[in-house]
C-alpha cells in the first residue's frame, strides 16, 4: 500500500468533520444532516427531560453559570446557535434582562416549537454553516452541544466569526471523553447502556432512546479537542482557551480580533 492513511476527520473535499460517518445510523456524509434533523424533530418533546437525566438536573444551572463565567454581561447582543429547546437562550435572557438582546437559531422545527413554549426571544430557523445575520452584529455567540452535528467545523467557525463584532466572543460547549481510563469506563457504562434504557423506560419513546444512543456514539467518535482548537485558530479566532470541568464538560472560548 502506498501513501498515508487519511485522517478520518478530514474529508476528501477538504472539510473538517466532527466525527466519521456512523454507518449504524446513516450511510454517507450526505445522509447525516437529514438523519440529524429527523432525530431532533422526533425527540424534541422529550429533550428537556432526557437532558435533565443526563446532567443529573444540573444542566440549566450550568449553562447560565458558564455564560457568566465566560463574560456575558448586560448590554451585549447574544446569539444562541443551535438553541434547541432554548436552555442557553433562557440563561442568557436572565443575565441580560432584555429578551430583545437574545436571538436563538436552530434548524429543527420540532426543537424550535418546544423553545417557543418558554421563550419570548426571536427564534430563527437556520444552520451555523449559513447564519442569516449581518456581519459584525453580535457581541457574544454560544453554540452548545451542537459541534458534533455540523457539516464542517471550518465553515461553522468562520460563520461564527463573521457575525461577531470585532472583539466579540465565541463560546463552544461540548462533551469530551474523560482522559482517565476509569472515567472513560464509567462514562461509557452510564451513557451507552444506562441512559438510553432509562430514557426508554421513563419516556416510553423509542425516538428519545435513539437520540441518547446517537449522543453516546457521537461523543465516543468526536474529533479531539486539539483539532477543534486548531480549526478555531485557522478560522481566524484569537486568544483561544479550552477549559474542561469535571473531566467531561469542555468549554472553548475565543475572541474575534479587534
Ligand atoms: C444537543 S442539542 C443542544 C441544544 C441546546 N444548545 C442545549 O444546550 O440544550 C443540539 C442542537 O443542534 C441543532 N443542530 C444540528 N445541526 C445543526 C447545525 N448544522 N447548525 C445549527 N444547529 C444544529 C439540533 O437541531 C439541536 O437542536
Write the layout of secondary structure elements.
Layout: H1 29-54, H2 59-69, E1 78-81, H3 87-96, E2 102-106, H4 109-118, E3 123-125, E4 138-144, H5 153-163, E5 164-175, H6 181-203, H7 206-220, H8 225-234, E6 238-245, E7 249-255
Parallel strand pairs: 1-2, 1-4, 2-3, 4-5
Antiparallel strand pairs: 5-7, 6-7
Helix pairs in contact: 1-4, 1-6, 1-7, 2-3, 5-8, 6-7
Bound molecules: S-adenosylmethionine.
Residues 36, 40, 51, 81-84, 87-88, 106-108, 111, 127-129, 144-146, 149-150 line the site of S-adenosylmethionine.
Structure description:
The chain has helices at residues 29-54, 59-69, 87-96, 109-118, 153-163, 181-203, 206-220, 225-234; strands at residues 78-81, 102-106, 123-125, 138-144, 164-175, 238-245, 249-255. With 258 residues, the chain is α/β, with parallel strands linked by helices. It has a seven-stranded mixed sheet with strand order 3-2-1-4-5-7-6, sandwiched between helices. Helix 4 (109-118) links the parallel strand 2 (102-106) and strand 3. Helix 1 packs parallel to helix 4, helix 1 crosses helix 7 and helix 2 (59-69) crosses helix 3 (87-96). The longest helix is centred in the first third of the chain and has 26 residues, at 29-54. S-adenosylmethionine binds next to helix 1 and helix 3.
Amino acid at each position: 500500500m502506498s501513501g498515508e492513511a487519511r485522517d478520518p476527520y478530514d474529508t476528501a473535499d477538504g472539510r473538517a468533520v466532527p466525527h466519521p460517518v456512523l454507518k449504524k445510523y446513516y450511510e454517507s456524509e450526505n445522509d447525516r444532516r437529514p438523519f440529524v434533523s429527523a432525530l431532533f424533530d422526533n425527540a424534541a418533546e422529550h429533550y428537556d427531560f432526557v437532558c435533565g437525566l443526563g446532567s443529573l438536573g444540573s444542566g440549566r444551572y450550568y449553562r447560565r453559570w458558564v455564560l457568566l463565567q465566560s463574560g456575558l454581561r448586560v448590554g451585549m447582543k447574544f446569539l444562541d446557535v443551535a438553541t434547541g429547546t432554548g436552555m442557553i437562550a433562557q440563561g442568557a435572557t436572565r443575565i441580560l434582562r432584555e429578551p430583545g438582546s437574545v436571538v436563538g437559531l436552530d434548524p429543527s422545527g420540532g426543537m424550535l416549537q418546544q423553545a417557543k413554549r418558554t421563550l419570548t426571544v426571536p427564534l430563527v430557523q437556520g444552520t451555523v454553516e449559513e447564519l442569516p445575520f449581518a456581519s459584525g452584529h453580535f457581541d457574544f455567540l454560544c453554540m452548545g452541544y451542537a459541534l458534533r452535528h455540523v457539516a464542517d467545523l471550518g465553515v461553522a467557525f468562520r460563520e461564527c466569526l463573521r457575525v461577531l463584532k470585532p472583539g466579540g466572543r465565541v463560546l463552544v460547549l461540548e462533551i469530551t471523553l474523560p482522559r482517565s481510563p476509569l472515567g472513560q469506563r464509567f462514562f461509557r457504562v452510564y451513557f451507552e447502556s444506562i441512559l438510553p434504557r432509562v430514557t426508554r423506560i421513563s419516556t416510553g419513546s423509542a425516538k428519545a432512546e435513539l437520540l441518547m444512543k446517537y449522543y453516546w456514539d457521537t461523543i465516543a467518535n468526536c474529533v479531539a479537542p486539539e483539532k477543534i482548537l486548531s480549526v478555531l485558530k485557522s478560522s481566524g479566532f484569537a486568544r483561544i482557551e479550552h477549559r474542561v470541568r469535571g473531566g467531561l464538560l469542555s468549554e472553548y472560548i475565543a475572541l474575534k480580533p479587534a
